[in-house]
Amino acid sequence: MRLHTRLAGSVSVRPENCAAALETMARFAVDPRWLVYLPPTMAPCGNGKMKRDPRGNVKRDPQFPSI
Q: Which residues contact residue 35 at a Cβ distance below 8 angstroms, ignoring those fewer than 6 apart?
């Protein structure tokens, strides 16, 4: 399948990836005419033990010298 864009010219999607590309666009309900670039995959997010430590933010703020 070939997608034609104003900014990037034409983009080819392999037949084995067409179903996944269509599912992704349908799931997020984005008008394909709005897409400037469709990456082949998305990188996974990092998974740490602690997502956020609010104490670190407070320690850095001079208004709050200690907890």
A: 5, 25
